Fold these 2 entries.
Entry 1:
Amino acid sequence: MHPPVPLLLPHKAESTVELCSYIVPKNTQVLINVWTMGRDPNIWENPTSFEPERFLNSNMDFKGQDFELIPFGAGRRICPGLPLAYRMLYLMLASLLHTFNWKLEDGLKPEDMDMEENFGLTLQKAIPLKAIPIKI
Ligand code: HEM
């Protein structure tokens, strides 16, 4: 739902190609809107609902083979940082969750958090998350 790079990086068609019955002329700049793909009800059931368990019994992967979910892109220009990024993300998040309990500021409930986004080359939370650690 919140891909860090919402339009991937700009690509350029090296030659004229036909894609899904659309003609893409040579030299066209092509942006891939993964932000919209992540919210497309034709692809995802309840797309805007946070249900990480939707992946539990699925073979779908984010490594560029399943085109519904390509936060790192796909093909030749896929993010070369993918192997580092996903190891570090799990390690950092798991370490933080393992070491602390967490609460939101001013008794804010998770379901009431403002999830608006600021668009740019990268996507950021409009209102930064303030999570307060409590040492276990
Ligand atoms: C969660 C973390 C990250 C995400 C979601 C991410 C996502 C992306 C995306 C979407 C692209 C464009 C792919 C395309 O256009 O098809 C990209 C390109 C790239 N990423 Fe990442 N990235 C992440 C972390 C990293 C890290 C840790 C590094 C380096 C250590 C890195 C280095 C690069 C480079 C050099 C490119 C350009 C590749 C090219 O154009 O050939 N990324 N990344």
Entry 2:
Amino acid sequence: MTAVSNAQDHTPLQSYVGFDSITKQIESKLLKRGFQFNVMVVGQTGLGKSTLINTLFAAHLIDTKGRFAADEVVRQTTEIHPVSHVIVENGVKLRLNIVDTPGYGDQVNNENCWDPIVKYIKDQHSAYLRKELTAMRDRYIVDTRIHCCLFFINPTGHGLRPIDVAVMKKLSDVVNVVPVIAKSDSLTMDERDLFKERIRAEMQYNNIRIFPFDNDEYEVEEQELNDRIRNLIPFAVVGSESTVVVDGKQVRGRKNRYGVVNVENESHCEFVHLRNFLTRTHLQDLIETTAQIHYEAFRSKQLLALKESSSKQQQAQQQPAQH
Ligand SMILES: Nc1nc2c(ncn2[C@@H]2O[C@H](COP(=O)(O)OP(=O)(O)OP(=O)(O)O)[C@@H](O)[C@H]2O)c(=O)[nH]1
Ligand SMILES: [Mg+2]
């Protein structure tokens, strides 16, 4: 006989106890504390990273000035730049950290151009670990770990450049990478579909691990949703900081000589799919995967290294005594 009874067996209750309210109790606690979501954008220079962030979170979060006319000075991002914002929707508070990074790829030598970005991500893990390990640790540790890294691909129609493959590989070891095709208004629909397929094949060929990951715990529905996302990735997006008028309505879009690209129109680009993915369907999964996979890998590596170095130190201290 086993001491632990089968999980399906349960003791019937004579009367209502009330512990089913635990879900409500957890909810109210979580609502009070709010949620934290940290996103980073990475990619070659000039692909519209800062613009897309401003498009995603409607208000001008990165640079309130933006660049509306062609004769304005180009606003190039020159340093890793985190911006914090608290947004509230139906009583749910989301603390949003957006980390803009300078575009790479315009140096003569682009070797190791990913180093500062990977270092930034690891620094956040290390800061979290340090806070976790202090004797008087805070009850609630402020989380600056990057939950999602939007990786911008140049809309060449050809494929990934070797440097993109190298950067994506480095990043996917430490963070959830979500690739997007930048400025997809420059591709025709056929080109776009072909390009997307080609990139998916290249990512697979190069063993680049892209979010969402497989997990035995997922229900059938979640698995189906993830398969759909895998077939959509990389999201072909268009960003814009200005609004244009379409059918009498103000929309976020880009107006050119031939017409208007409406950023929010699903037949124009996949911006809405990306936004839904980030906020409606995979927000929690991105946060959880960061903690359970990326941070966990970092943490166990650090703790093992710490253990090894302290046992070496002990050995070194004991050795002179033996002689
Ligand atoms: N056609 C087109 N142009 C875009 C799009 N998104 C941004 N742009 C334009 O591209 C230029 C560069 O945009 P930024 O957002 O500054 O690019 P970035 O990737 O942040 O550049 P760095 O900071 O230098 O890395 C601006 O003139 C934008 O208006 C887009 O989806 N389509
Ligand atoms: Mg920028």
